[in-house]
Design goal:
alpha/beta; Rossmann fold; eight-stranded mixed beta sheet; 8 strands; 35% helix
Length: 266
Amino acid sequence: MAQLPQWQSLDAGVSVPNGTNPGRIVAVVASEGAVEAGWAGAATLDLARAWSAAGEKVMVVDGALHYPSLHGHVDTENVEGLSDAALFGLSIGRVAKPVDGGAFYLITAGTAVADANAVAASARWGTLLGGFVEAGVKLLLFVRDGDSGCAAFLGSASDIIVLADANEKAPAAVRELEGMVRAVTGPGAGASSVGPAAPASEFRPPQEWTASGPGGRRRIALIGAAVVALIVALLIAFGIIPVPGLSPEPLGTVSGLTSGSVSVGG
């Protein structure tokens, strides 16, 4: 097993060698401690700012599809993004958002998906990555250790940067990938290099569970109506709400089926 690089402060800067082509797919893996401390997203964007200032062409992609957060650090919406480009063919020109006046670009997570692995494994995603490399773009792919899709996204990376607190154990996602890790880094004592703490969206549940996702309010309203209907049906079934003309016999029939003829043990 290869050794990971020694932990260093973000203040020292992070370098990823270009090789023969400046185009690289750099996976930025946030450890559990970095996520809980709330600085992982801001640190990723600060890495992009530093590389952009050095003359690199930089694109940041939020690969934490179930817990998107990078959009909150640049005050933009997470509507169309990575999932829409990879699964539905939206163009990069449509989903990439300029940051800091166009110093670099951000592709947000996009429309909520049930399976993040489907995005990472899609043929369209592979084609997009090839295009970025060919164009000499350094792509920072932000993922969180343990998240759905993390391992699949790492499979497409050429380099890895680990965001972790000092003395924290290596993220499970990079085990057996130690040779690809270029730096293990985090904020110094002053923590000034990574900006403000992440907003609450860093820890929010997947969009498909909330009203903020596409069609979220309508979906929640339908779920609420279904719950009310179920409660009313149960109250009627147990006779708490009487219904004129309704015989109690059906309930007894159902009870007999479940307790007698339909037995679990046979």
